[in-house]
Design goal:
Layout lengths: L1 H21 L8 H22 L4 H24 L16 E6 L1 H6 L9 H27 L6 H13 L3 H12 L6 H14 L6 H13 L4 H13 L3 H13 L8 H15 L22 H8 L3 H21 L4 H14 L2 H13 L9 H14 L3
Amino acid sequence: MIWIAMAVLALTASGIVAASAWKPALVQGPAEDRTLAVLKDQLSEVDRDAERGLLSVAEAHAARQEIKRRVLSVGRVKNTGESSGGGRVILMAAAVFVPLFAAGYYSFAGAPNLSSIAFEDRQAEVAQNREIEALAQKLLQRLQADSEGGALEGWMLLGQTFMKLGRASDAASAYERATQSMNADSAVFSIYAEALIVSEQGIVTPQAKRAIARALELDPTNPAGTFYDAVGLAQAGANEQAYNRLLTRLDEVDGFAPWMETFVAEANRIGAALGRAPISLSDYAPVMSGNSPGPTAADVEAASQMDDVDRDAFIRSMVERLATRLEAEPDDIDGWMRLGRAYRVLGETDLALNAYSRAKELLVPVSSEDPRQSVILQSLEELQSGQ
């Protein structure tokens, strides 16, 4: 399978070069070109996060597979013909993240395995998908039969299920029903906007723009809303405005948030077209300074000069510094998550369990749509099962 994937990528790259030779240059360049560049940056970000212990092995694997799936999807779109409309030049940066998004939105879309899979495993996967499809249909019928329009949580669950099955258009329809609830908050509208964007191959449509505007009206600090607003501006040719939009939001953050890395990558992609110097995460979230997520550049350089024993001791000292700070600032849910990941990297299962348990205790005020919730619960489940 890896050779098939490499062949598809090679054909995609050739198609982009050929298209650029036959088409007049656009202000923003071919959409596929830009999307592949973003996806390449995202793969690098995942690798760096995995090396720093910010992502577990399972989290990193899932993220890589999802990004690779999107790379192949871009290749398929390229081969089906030219994109209509010169303004359609930026496809959605994947889920991230994640978190943002890390985290969250990625987990909804799934990640088809690119490596060889046994026939029995494929059959089991098909059977499982059929079961999920059947359950989703039953849930849809129950929600449609509800005289009060169906519960917000039910429509959100249905949307998440459709996203997992790769049915983005159906997911968007479910999320649209969720937005009609009086209890629909900013996150509901930004998730709806994302589903619309995915269903349109990364294009921020007028309908998606309206959802984004509503999300930001309800919560101007919603990072997903801000991100897709910037993507939409860039697609419309307003690169300067899109660039400033991202940097302004980064300036508003006090400390570190998982979605910041996606913002930095997108700002640098847009900034390159504007001739701007690259920015870095450390410009907005200085590392290892009180509540930072990782080592400083000096720390990394020092560690590279050490032997294995000294390096291990050095890393443990940094982890201990984080643990000490969290005892003094126990309400830092992101800090406990970072500590849990660090302990997992070090093989300290009991300490990792304790750290994630402390993070779980802080989930009470967290929205059910916050991607950190699923990450914490999944990590606890993996640790308790010995994975």
